[in-house]
Write a sequence for this structure.
């Protein structure tokens, strides 16, 4: 259920006409966009399996699309009728002034319990493009997710690129023939990663390249020849970066993570979990049917693949075709085609528009942070763990993150009430504890793999400018980790392979039009340099967007202190904030 209504303006009665006109010009069509999310059970059959019960919003997979304009206020009433605790994260929304609405369980809120409600309320400020929403607890975002479409105040005519004839949302996902909540529980209890997905999906459907797919399990995009389409592409997969191609067609990328890019022409889109891409596709091929296909990018390249070696498909169907001829299939990149992935990720640049933020040139804090896998001892709650050996883990600067214990306050509430004892500590390090050959095979030994569990944050002053080098390690496996920062966009200044060397990397920094992101795919066995301004007080999660790695501890939190005014401080919590 959704409503879209103009904001009340009683102050119009007391303002001069000229000032009213000026205010309308600046406010535009600011509105309240209101939805109710009923989270509950949905019976669904995929891959010719017996119908199974999944958790979904409003009985749909994917869930409902929220459409808003810059300046609008979004209000979502979450009604949890599922058997599981629930939270919703509004991925990429800054949440300035509304940190209690960010959503990650035990970071900014306690979960919404079964049978309870919570209202998320936030304003879309300075953001246009494609974002998305998803559950931020357990593995439930495998089925609890949807699009968040943010248009300019002036509508489609205000796009800084050719106006499309139509817009389509294309959401990639992963499907398991299992209960994903149980998969996460077993993975935690045993200390062993969950198995790969059974299929990749496009708009909730796997397509017809699996052993058993019903006719209604292929999404179709109907197009007209010589028309231009804006594809709003979202990777909602739990653990897999994806290549996306459409047979006989190419793309012009015009946005990523709700930030405009200079037009980038490509025949393949590479997209990591958590990321979005806005791409124009011109329907200029012969009238016919064409597959769109997603296939996995395997950056780890292990002997025993940890991903599904399959392909999800949908069909682009031109108006006027018979509708029965077999669709053409695009060539599929090799699973380990790192060259193609790096070319796409590193070639995007920002479209610098008047009034938009630009990369800060002065830096207050410099951090060098390793991101990768490792091992640790079993935790007390891992009841099926082999306590005679170590288990898989992951860390940032050798600190493997765990959420506050059940029954404790959320980290944001502890911050707000200045009651952090027993919830988190303020000692996340700016450097790894040991300097070593981060990407060398010889470093992959038991001593360097070992990490310990903690709940550490890095405290920042309001408006502090942070530069962070994210360095992938060889420990267990080199792998491209999609690192997502809540509450901010950051500028990606440079990316490369091997160990980061400031002397050679710094001269390559793009300080003119670096791409702006909320999720960066750190190159496998390599590094990325990001920079952001901490102008948003609150507790902001930074983590790998592979849910398997997040559960293993590949995360940390930035604690941003209040600014000098009430508007630059964390507000009191809403009255209906869930309690632990």
């Amino acid at each position: 259920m959704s409503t879209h209504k103009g904001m009340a303006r009683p102050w119009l009665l007391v303002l001069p006409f000229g000032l009213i006109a000026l205010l309308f010009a600046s406010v535009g069509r600011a509105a309240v966009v209101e939805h109710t999310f009923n989270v509950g059970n949905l019976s669904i059959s995929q891959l010719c399996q017996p119908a199974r019960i999944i958790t979904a919003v409003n009985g749909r997979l994917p869930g409902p699309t929220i459409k808003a304009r810059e300046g609008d206020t979004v209000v979502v009433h979450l009604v949890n009728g599922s058997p599981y605790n629930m939270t919703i994260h509004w991925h990429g929304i800054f949440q300035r002034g509304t940190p209690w609405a960010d959503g990650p369980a035990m970071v900014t809120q306690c979960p919404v319990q079964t049978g309870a409600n919570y209202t998320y309320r936030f304003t879309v400020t300075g953001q246009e493009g494609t974002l998305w929403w998803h559950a931020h607890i357990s593995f439930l975002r495998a089925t609890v997710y949807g699009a968040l479409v943010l248009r300019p105040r002036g509508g489609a005519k205000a796009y800084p690129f050719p106006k499309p004839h139509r817009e389509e949302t294309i959401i990639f996902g992963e499907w398991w023939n299992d209960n994903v909540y149980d998969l996460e529980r077993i993975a935690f209890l045993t200390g062993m990663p969950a198995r790969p997905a059974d299929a990749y999906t496009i708009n909730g459907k796997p397509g017809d390249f699996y052993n058993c797919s019903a006719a209604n399990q292929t999404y179709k995009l109907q197009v007209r020849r010589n028309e231009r389409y804006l594809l709003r592409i979202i990777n909602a997969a739990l653990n897999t970066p994806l290549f996306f191609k459409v047979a006989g067609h190419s793309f012009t990328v015009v946005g990523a993570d709700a930030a405009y890019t200079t037009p980038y022409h490509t025949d393949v889109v590479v997209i990591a979990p958590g990321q979005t891409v806005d791409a124009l596709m011109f329907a200029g091929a012969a009238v016919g049917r064409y597959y769109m296909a997603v296939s996995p990018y395997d950056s780890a390249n292990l002997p025993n693949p940890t991903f599904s070696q399959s392909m999800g498909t949908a069909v682009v169907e031109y108006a006027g075709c018979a509708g029965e001829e077999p669709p053409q299939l695009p060539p599929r990149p090799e699973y380990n085609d790192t060259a193609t992935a790096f070319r796409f990720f590193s070639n995007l640049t920002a479209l610098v528009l008047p009034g938009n933020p630009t990369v800060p040139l002065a830096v207050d804090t410099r951090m060098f942070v390793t991101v990768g896998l490792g091992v640790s001892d079993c935790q007390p709650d891992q009841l099926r763990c082999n306590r005679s050996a170590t288990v898989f883990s992951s860390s940032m600067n050798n600190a493997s993150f765990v959420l506050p214990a059940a029954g404790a306050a959320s980290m944001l509430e502890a911050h707000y009430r200045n009651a952090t004892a027993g919830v988190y500590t303020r000692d996340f390090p700016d450097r790894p504890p040991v300097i070593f050959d981060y990407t060398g095979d010889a470093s992959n030994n038991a001593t360097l793999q070992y990490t310990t569990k903690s709940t550490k944050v890095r405290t920042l002053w309001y408006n502090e400018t942070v530069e962070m080098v994210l360095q992938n390690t060889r420990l267990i496996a080199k792998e491209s980790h999609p690192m997502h920062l809540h509450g901010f966009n950051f500028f990606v200044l440079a990316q490369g392979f091997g160990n980061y060397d400031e002397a050679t990397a710094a001269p390559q920094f793009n300080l003119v039009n670096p791409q702006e992101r909320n999720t960066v795919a750190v190159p496998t066995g390599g590094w990325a340099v990001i920079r952001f301004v901490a102008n948003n007080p609150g507790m902001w999660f930074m983590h790998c967007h592979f849910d398997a790695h997040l559960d293993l501890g590949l995360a940390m939190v930035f604690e941003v202190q209040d600014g000098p005014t009430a508007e630059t401080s964390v507000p009191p919590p809403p009255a209906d904030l869930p309690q632990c």
